[in-house]
Amino acid sequence: MSSLKNPPTKSRRDRQRLILGLLVSGGLFLALGMAVALRLQGPVKTLPYGQFRKQLERGEIASVRLGPTLIEGRLLAVNPQDGRPIHFRVSRVGMEHDVDLIRLLDVHIPGGDYEAETGPSPLQTVVFPGALFLLMLLAFSWVVSRSGGMGSAMAFAKSRARVYTGNAQRVTFEDVAGHDEVVIELKEIVEFLQTPGKYCSLGGRVPKGVLLIGAPGTGKTLLARAVAGEAGVPFFSLSGSDFVELFVGVGASRVRNLFARAQAKAPCLIFIDELDAIGKARGAGGPGSHDERDQTLNQLLVEMDGFDANRGIILLAATNRPETLDQALVRPGRFDRQVVVDRPDLIGREQILKVHARAVPLEETINLRQVAAITPGFVGADLANLVNEAALLAARRGKTTVGLPEFEEGIERLIAGPEKRQRLLRREEKNRIAFHEAGHALVARKLPETDPVHKISIIGRGNGALGYTLYRPEEDRLLHTRTSLENAVSSLLGGALAEELALGEASDGCSSDLRRATQIARRMVVEFGMSPVLGRLNYLKDSGLSSPTAAELSWSEQTAREIDLEVRRIIDEAQARARIILQGHRETLDEIAARLIEQETVDAAELKAILENAECRTEDTPRGVGGPGSES
Ligand code: ADP
Ligand code: MG
Ligand code: ZN
């Protein structure tokens, strides 16, 4: 999808050419060898040394040539069929010092027709193989050079990182639309790369690694290119799959090489796209070639520990599967800053469309907001495609400008496949998700000691979730009171409850909410001693694990039952609280949902405004409004 990515077919083609080169030179070698063998044609008898001496003594040999390992010569007798001379050959190995031989030769070779050779001639040992080798080399390099240069094929272990220093097709933050928060975060990195000294003198700590997380096509690669474009420093870019090779050790040495090259060019930026290709949890997956990947990952971890970010190297990586990454990679000091690149909401989509429509003549009447409104669920890459598709359609129709009908048909075409059709949210689904998320948010806002709601969205973040409510704790909470845990459970249950209230019944979209709610309630009972029935006991064995397996639980049947009942009670009570809130503020719920349907995301300030509005309107007692009111 991106122009930076190494198309996988290219490296495969490289390898095919390499193999072709080897075959060609191998064939050449074979042909030459055969020519050499043919030089010695004619009937040749191989004799044992003893028999050769006997025949010599009997005077049956006409001439002899003594080599260091071979004796060759001609017999007196000729071939009875065609009268051709008969040659013979004797191995002399082990008999080289047969001094008696010379006396025998003197006596029995009639005209003294024998000679000796010291060994193969220089022509045979040096010039001939040398020429052969040269020929092979030429053939090889010819084939290789056609596939992109000797260097690229010879340097297996060299990293394949492409370096961008110039500003050919420079990408800037202007080209990235709808990711304002992400851009702010990345601008800090650009600033650091441009003036590393300034940061360090203030004692600022710069992140070593920044991980961009988001669904495919949301613009992660684009963002990385924009960082490089803005910073104006060398940019080493490669894809995780570039490290994955057939040969053990190649990946690891590529990593080493990459960092060595980067160190020489600091300040600079290293970008590893599709980090999950090397960053998968070690030991995960089946047996087989995993050693290689583990080695590569280990080397990456070693290099990341080894370099000093203050020297001006920053590692940027992107993945759409953060959950598969090895935990060691996301530890502090490695990819410790993680930035989520969301799917765009209505306004985001409009902005992205504007970026891509810059070069396309649009009809005067068209409003890109309309196009954005009919493409919920589309990511940046889809929208870029859509603009392209619409422009093509207009051209095909002989129009000079692109209008709404072209966009509409373009959408039809893009979602032609059944799997792609899912990308476009159906209206009823949008409605349902809106109520669900509004339910989470409203309950959280109305209960004390909950984390403030930062943003609500009905555009999923990939990984299965359809919408999300983002809570942002004011500060990292180290301790949770019983109230805060109970209210977190209420808020989690608020989603399904709101669906029930507004649409008659809940859907299966709440399974992960329920899992998390149950998990919290269970830990309250089993680990935190927060159940009056079971008392202040920790029911886990001293394994120190927070996620006990069955074997580690130490309770009787009776206790197990009591635990289940207590978990049940906590959930039921939390649900009752949530229900009261949602029923009591039904209008507010509808209002939040409507706003979500309209603009797909609602941020903290808007949510606060809606809530305050509702309060002065209904004059209802601000029951339980102890919720953290601050917006971050
Ligand atoms: P990812 O790396 O997240 O899979 P890419 O960065 O490769 O996605 O995006 C593919 C293309 O989609 C980009 O080259 C760009 O044309 C378009 N695109 C994606 N997101 C955006 C965005 N936020 N703004 C503008 N264009 C975008
Ligand atoms: Mg990408
Ligand atoms: Zn939910």
Low-confidence stretches: 1-10, 148-154, 622-632
Give the overall form: elongated
- Strand order within the widest beta sheet: 6-8-9-10-7-11
- How many structural domains are formed by the residues? 4
What would CATH call the class of the largest domain? Mainly Alpha
* Percent strand: 5-15%
Strand runs, count: 14
Helix-and-strand structural type: alpha/beta
Q: Ions, cofactors, ligands: which are bound?
A: adenosine-5'-diphosphate, magnesium ion, zinc ion
Number of helical elements: 22
Evaluate the radius of gyration.
39 Å
What is the third-level CATH name, the topology of the largest domain?
A: Methane Monooxygenase Hydroxylase, Chain G, domain 1
Q: What's the architecture of the largest domain in CATH terms? A: Up-down Bundle
C-alpha termini separation? 35 Å
Helix content bin: 40-55%
Q: What would CATH call the homologous superfamily of the largest domain?
A: Peptidase M41
Summarize the structure.
The protein has 22 helices and 14 strands. By secondary structure, it is α/β, with parallel strands linked by helices.
Task: Give the secondary structure arrangement, pairings included.
Layout: H1 8-38, E1 44-47, H2 49-57, E2 61-66, E3 70-78, E4 85-91, H3 100-108, E5 114-116, H4 122-145, H5 150-154, E6 162-164, H6 180-194, H7 196-201, E7 209-213, H8 220-231, E8 235-239, H9 250-265, E9 268-273, H10 276-279, H11 290-306, E10 313-319, E11 337-340, H12 346-356, H13 368-373, H14 380-396, H15 404-414, H16 418-421, H17 427-446, E12 453-457, E13 468-471, H18 482-503, H19 511-526, H20 557-584, H21 586-599, E14 601-603, H22 604-618
Parallel strand pairs: 1-4, 2-5, 7-10, 7-11, 8-9, 9-10
Antiparallel strand pairs: 2-3, 3-4, 6-8, 12-13, 12-14
This protein binds adenosine-5'-diphosphate, magnesium ion (MG) and zinc ion.
